[in-house]
Specification:
Elements (H helix, E strand, L loop, with lengths): L17 H4 L19 E6 L20 E7 L14 E5 L4 E6 L10 E5 L5 E3 L4 E6 L5 E7 L14 H9 L3 E2 L5 E2 L4 H13 L8
Antiparallel strand pairs: 1-2, 2-8, 3-6, 3-8, 4-5, 4-7, 9-10
The structure holds fe (ii) ion.
The site of fe (ii) ion has 6 residues, from loops.
Length: 207
């Protein structure tokens, strides 16, 4: 029998289309986003995805007990050496990605291990291990991340090595003590510059 009373759709806001997500990227989500080798577009699907930039726009704002992000990086780019207090899991969606890990914050080349992974592969980083990864394909590639729940802007997150913080500061980017990006006056120009670097690409399979 048809329901006659007005119904609030419980699924409102619960579908994220990739076409919309692609228009909703944050080119400078982290302090390393302006450094060569670390250019990438970050997308929030659910929750805060460990952002340092408070102006990211999640596709889904209802609380979940996990957080999901996506990212697109040009060849040779990806997140710099960092760690978190919580589990961070990745699945490449396109291309090939090299994931690296170690325990020395001061040496991103002193690795305990590294692995090249592709679509459908999964890697789940334990808290506190230092990690970086990069797109080792010759076209822009995409990936997907699931993070443990965490409360953002309560302290530095990600945790960066001092040398990375210095390199980012030389480009005008730093955070406050709660891990929130302090935007320089030329932030809009920087965002446009990084977006152009990410988009100066051979078109990927999603275009
Ligand atoms: Fe991370």
């Amino acid at each position: 029998m048809a329901i006659s009373r007005p119904v609030v759709d419980p699924m409102k806001g619960r579908i994220a289309r990739f076409a919309d997500l692609k228009r909703n990227g944050t080119p400078i989500m982290f302090i390393d986003s302006v450094l060569p080798g670390h250019y990438r577009m970050n997308f929030s699907v659910v929750g805060d995805t460990a952002s340092e930039n408070p102006d990211f726009r999640p596709m889904m704002t209802d609380p979940h007990k996990f957080q999901i992000g996506m990212f697109e990086a040009p060849p040779g780019n990806g997140p710099g050496w960092h760690t978190h207090d919580y589990v961070e899991m990745f699945m490449p969606l396109t291309g090939q990605w090299r994931f690296c890990w170690g325990i020395d914050p001061d040496d991103p080349d002193d690795l305990i291990g590294d692995e090249v992974l592709g679509p459908w592969d999964v890697i789940s980083f334990v808290p506190d291990v230092w990690r970086r990864f990069e797109n080792v394909s010759d076209t822009n590639s995409w990936g997907f991340a699931v993070l443990d729940p965490h409360i953002h802007f309560t302290g530095p997150d990600p945790r960066w090595p001092e040398w990375m913080i210095r390199k980012a500061a030389e480009q005008g980017l730093r955070t406050d003590n709660n891990g929130r990006l302090i935007k320089p006056g030329n932030f809009s120009e920087l965002e446009a510059e990084i977006t152009a670097k990410i988009n100066g690409r051979v078109d990927g399979p999603w275009e």
